[in-house]
Amino acid sequence: LDHSFVVSKYWQDAEMARVAGCTSIIIRSPRMGSGHHDFLVDDFDEAVQLILQLDKSNHTPHSLEEHFRK
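RESULT FIELD:
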């Protein structure tokens, strides 16, 4: 699961991803909360681009963290 991603608008899903050892990508929304998330994006397309970038570059999810944390 450490190579898996959870993409969601809900903080509960980000917490589940953390517990499971996945990378969480939260889409900005009123329900995103202020809890843990690995990445924060504006929309689903941006989440897909992030995942593709991580896959293409063979980086760990946290290596692009500064670019996608807002």
